[in-house]
């Protein structure tokens, strides 16, 4: 049973017509970077809830969520219209195993994301805990259009904090932009354009790949890594090279 507590909206940032950030305050229990929680509203006398990953680091009292506005949705339009001071319910305890402590030892950690699934990676990278065990961290953020890069400035700031350890590569699928890759992540791995751009190999001897995004991207990328790189899924009872999180 979900342990709901009341939260207060601090801010809603509308990046464009479909992407927005919800920032709230609530006395939640401490979560682990990479985990998700549930938000709930009573709509038409019915409690509606959805799961969202934290964007903020666990030590930040401003609880931040990066969301997509689904025009005919039954939940996100209400979040999109919220104002400072509005109330919403949040689960006191977070869930999820998409965390750094579950990643086996490796030299190169690849973080692959599409759209709003950049959220858990931003939480992990801002938290910084246990990141010193990786020699290189590669954050790949795939979006349709360049204007969908809502957190690009934060990503660049984080990249500077990690100095030469963190490499960020942007991928767009609907328009070609200078200094970005064009296409879909699975194909960019298969044709080696992603590895060539970073100048690091994805292999099963010194790499681990975290995948977070829409179900099709997660499935296709996992299959490419299994077939092309001889990688296997990381499980509790068997160490592997791939850790996944489907974002809906």
UniProtKB/TrEMBL annotation:
One of its GO terms (molecular function) is nucleotide binding. The chain crosses the membrane at residues 20-41. Pfam families: FAD_binding_6, NAD_binding_1. Residues 2-101 form the FAD-binding FR-type domain. Keywords: FAD, Flavoprotein, Membrane, NADP, Nucleotide-binding, Oxidoreductase, Transmembrane, Transmembrane helix. SUPFAM superfamilies: Ferredoxin reductase-like, C-terminal NADP-linked domain, Riboflavin synthase domain-like. Coiled coil: none annotated. Its EC number is 1.18.1.2, 1.19.1.1. Its cofactor is FAD. It catalyses: reduced [flavodoxin] + NADP(+) = oxidized [flavodoxin] + NADPH + 2 H(+); 2 reduced [2Fe-2S]-[ferredoxin] + NADP(+) + H(+) = 2 oxidized [2Fe-2S]-[ferredoxin] + NADPH. GO terms for biological process: cellular response to oxidative stress; heme catabolic process. Belongs to the ferredoxin--NADP reductase type 1 family. This is Flavodoxin/ferredoxin--NADP reductase. The gene is fpr.
């Amino acid at each position: 049973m979900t342990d709901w507590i009341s939260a207060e909206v601090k801010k809603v940032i509308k990046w464009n017509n479909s992407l927005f950030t919800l920032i709230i305050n609530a006395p939640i229990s401490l979560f682990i970077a990479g985990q998700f929680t549930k938000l709930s509203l009573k709509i038409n006398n019915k409690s509606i809830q959805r799961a969202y990953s934290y964007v903020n680091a666990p030590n930040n009292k401003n609880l931040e969520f990066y969301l997509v506005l689904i025009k005919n949705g039954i939940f996100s339009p209400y979040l999109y219209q919220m104002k400072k001071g509005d109330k919403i319910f949040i689960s006191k305890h977070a869930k999820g195993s998409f965390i750094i402590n579950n990643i086996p030892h490796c030299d190169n950690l690849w973080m692959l994301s599409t759209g709003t699934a950049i959220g858990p990676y931003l939480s992990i990278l801002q938290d910084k805990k246990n990141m010193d065990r990786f020699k290189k961290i590669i954050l790949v953020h795939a979006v349709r259009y360049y204007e969908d890069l809502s957190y690009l400035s934060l990503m660049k700031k984080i990249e500077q904090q990690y100095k030469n350890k963190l490499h960020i590569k942007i991928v767009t699928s609907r328009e070609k932009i200078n200094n970005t890759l064009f296409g879909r992540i699975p194909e960019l791995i298969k044709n080696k354009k992603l590895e060539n751009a970073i100048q690091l190999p994805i292999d099963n001897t010194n790499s681990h790949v975290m995948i977070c995004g829409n179900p099709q991207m997660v499935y296709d990328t996992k299959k490419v890594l299994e077939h092309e790189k001889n990688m296997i899924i990381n499980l509790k009872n068997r160490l592997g090279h791939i850790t996944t999180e489907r974002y809906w």
